[in-house]
Amino acid sequence: MLRNTPQQVARLLLAVLIAATASLAQDFKKQVIYQIVTDRFFDGDKANDNPPQSAGMFDPTKNNWRLYWGGDLAGIEQKLAYLKGMGITAIWISPPVDNLNVIIPDRSGSPTAPYHGYHARDFKRIEEHFGDSGNSWTAFDSLTRAAHRNGIKIIVDFAPNHTNTRNAGEFGALYDDGKFLADYNHDPNGFFHHNPNIGDYNDRYQLQYNTLFDLADLNQENPTIDAYLKAAIKQLEAHGADGFRVDAVKHVTWGWEYSLVNAAYTYAPTFLFGEWMESLSDPLFHDSYKFANRSGMSLLDYPLYGAIREVFGGGGDFSKIDQTLSVENAGFARPNDLVTFVDNHDQPRLLSVGSDDNRLNESLAFLLTCRGIPVIYYGDEQHLHNDTRGGGDPYDRNPMTSFDTTTTAYRLIKQLAALRQSNDALAYGGFHERWMNQDVYVFERQFFNDTVLVAINKSNSSDYRIDGLLTALPAGNYPDYLNRLLGGVALTVPSGNGGGSHPVSSFTLPAHSVAVWQAAGSAPGPQVGSIGPAVGQPGLRVTLAGRGFGSGVGPGFGKVFFGPTAAAIVSWSDSSVAFAVPRVLSGAYSVELMDSRHSRSNPMPFTVLTGELVPVTFTVNNAPQTRAGDYIFLTGDTVELGNWGTTFDTAVGPMLAPHEPNWFIVASVPAGVTIRFKFLRIAADGSVTREGGSDHTYTVLASGTGSVSVDWQH
Quick check: do 428-519 and 613-711 share a fold? Predict the structure, then answer.
């Protein structure tokens, strides 16, 4: 029998200890996230408003929208009761790390400060405006402890792409817990990429290696930077961070990010989702879902965001949302892990783009019942907005002026957040359109015997007669779950026992209304709705979530199987089981839970890696000539290299060729393993030209970063 090594056992015990405070950090599907721009939320500590090392960056008048206004971590902590009362279960905070200390004038000459948190100088200290003048972890620790006591998780915005402005201020300076490492103009060890700003946002090389908005671009292939960033994210985990929103993942080296995700999951239970701005028409849309499917990092759902804006903000047809969901659900392997939103800190709020309070409420109702993990942007529950210059940055980062718990939006979020906890169809269910026209969208979520049916009419004036509607709800009379908060109506299902499609009695859906009907069925056996993460090496802690698991004790005890191999159980409850990935061969598995009565659950897909991941830069020189749409790919003998796959989705790539015919790519491969690999050309029509000769071999380092360069074998 294969056994875990002492190091793996120690790591597993550490994960268990952290999990006690993280509170099932790996199952985020049931969460309702609240995004906060920390500086603009609430000033809980006046002592950090104008700290000595960055004096003059604070504007007490709140006239300059690009200076600090006083919001801090203590302010978030003091408003936890307000957030908990709304049903919020996770808070996404601005990057809390130490930021630029020097004022930089904008194009008009007005002073600007990094109140937003995206101009880091030291990833291992807390920003003094958010904590204290000693840049200590005191305020962060206090917030995470208080949040966990209230059943709320903390998600940290983590920005590994860059430091601060490269051509002004501190010139991109990077520090390691107070020790100067380099700046953009004094970089003898190659900690930064020295390339121009991105000119073509559809060019894979420019996206990953050129400069974003003059921000000093970090070189993650440098072993010092690789170790530094992974140590920083682990430090945040050690201080209680439950998850991470990773900034600008489209602009960080994609292959390196696989190893970042693996390092975070290896250290502690967590959940990561990244910012990859796109639409369905983006030429790199396929790259985005390939990245999400294989890396273990989910993404913010920008295509659905664009559809929501068009439909609820611009009066578009509901078919836009329906089409977007269909395309994404077909591409993304885990669409319920996508993180959905109506507003965020980078775009004008919905109320600034021609919408009104009714439409905002309707969009929030859609967000909280649609597939995916919903994010509420701070202040939307107060209908907060400022329309100066169209409401764009920085006027979408408003000061929080009210904490009223009686607004319609606050009460709506509270009710639907509660439904997310009581009816698993919202967290784990599939998505099915039931009735649609330009103004009306009726859709259903279903997870085994749990069903939620939602109807939205966004018309300003037209009531609609709904005929021919089918539902999986069993026979019965259903009041509007929202108690007519948004003008909803009751529903009657004359016949049927659930599980199928039953006719609904005709009804009229009023203008500007939302109705929600639901039924929560029993779980006769184990029903799994989530596995997290879905990628990892033996010894990694993984969580299955769902219901009907039982206590795990009794005849035979409960077990989790990878094929015929049982995993070591860490913890077991009726709705969540944590286990360690067993020592099995790498590859794709169907994971099944068996309860103490020997009843088996539905299977969940999981990819077992060969080992912990190390980023390696692979270069092939003198590759065959390519035409538009042709690319060179890397493939090899491990699951990390695609198991000799020869398609866009299975091979590693497309590789990058700033100097064709030489191509390169970073791939995360198993530490300490001797790998075999080759290169191939995949043409625009899908035809494949394989490299000749024998396999290339490379022994991966046990840690750090690596590189290998070979010539194409004809």
Answer: yes
- pLDDT of the residue at 2: 33
Q: Which of 247, 287, 595, 640 is catalytic?
A: 247
pTM: 0.95
* Domain locations along the chain: 30-423, 428-519, 527-608, 613-711
Per-residue pLDDT for 18 more than 50?
Answer: no
- The domain made up of 527-608 is a member of CATH 3.50.50.60: no
Q: Check residues 345 and 12 and name the one with the higher pLDDT.
A: 345
247 is catalytic: yes
Q: Is-contact 385 351, C-beta < 8 A?
A: yes
**pLDDT value at residue 21:** 36
The pLDDT score that the predictor gives to residue 38 is: 98
pLDDT, residue 497, reads 87
Average model confidence (pLDDT) for the chain? 95
Which among 157, 183, 242, 275 is annotated as catalytic?
A: 275
Query: What is the CATH code for 428-519?
Result: 2.60.40.1180
Confidence at 499, pLDDT banded by 50, 70, 90:
confident
Contact by Cβ (8 Å): 99, 114: yes
Which CATH superfamily, name and number, covers 613-711? Immunoglobulins (2.60.40.10)
**From start to end of 458-558, where are the E strands?**
464-466, 470-471, 476-478, 491-493, 502-503, 507-509, 513-519, 527-532, 535-536, 541-547
Superfamily of domain covering 30-423: Glycosidases (3.20.20.80)
580-615 burial, b for 16+ CB within 10 Å, e for fewer?
bbbbeebeebebbbbbbeeeebeebebbbbbbbbbb
